[in-house]
Amino acid sequence: MNIHIITVLPELLESPFQHSIMKRAQEKGLLQVHVHHLRKWAINKHGQVDDYQYGGGAGMVMMCEPLANAIDELQQEKKFDDIIFMTPDGETFNQKTANQLSLKENILIICGHYKGIDQRIRDTYVTKEISIGDFVLSGGELAAAIVVDAIGRIIPGVLNDETSALTDSFQDNLLAPPVYTRPADYKGLKVPDILLQGDPKKVEDWRYEQALLRTQQRRPDLLKD
Fold first, then answer.
1. pTM of full prediction above 0.85
2. Cα–Cα distance between 222 and 225 in angstroms, integer?
3. What residue numbers bound the domain in which 107 lies?
4. CATH code at 181?
5. What are the tens digits of pLDDT across the range 13-36?
């Protein structure tokens, strides 16, 4: 899978993809993340990629020309299954969307900044708009890193045990059940006996019951689906 990211702050995306699961995914050749500095396509020698918004008001807007030129050039190299714009007014990102995107081969992500990008880019190029929540960040870079991490970890072969992702929260619209490790008794706080009995079927049933109970208590909205 190839993920390309257009940004005015590539430095913000250096660390998230150079460690842990994302690093291993790239070393295995299962995921490639390409970060492109938008100023490569700036309109002048000063590196300008933004301008004042028509109609007045505070905040700069990312211009059409640099973004269009960047997308056009990248599209000449490969066809993107989706061109995603990270924006607070997009579709709220969830596990279902992550699962769907993990099946794609090539994705391009545009990181907004300032007051956002010129609407004409959204109308012409963008196929999906994604938000990670009802709040505003300084730019789309951190949101993009979250999306890439959520997608990358469920690509087959990335995790050492692929069944791990299948039992994560939000798979099947359930929160994950409680988990325990050694010691079995910590200052009088004991691990549930059923987890120590060695019966996989009973453990599976207990975990499902606990996941259902936790979801009912904390996120009953998930059960409506």
1. yes
2. 6
3. 2-152
4. 1.10.1270.20
5. 999 999 999 999 999 999 999 999
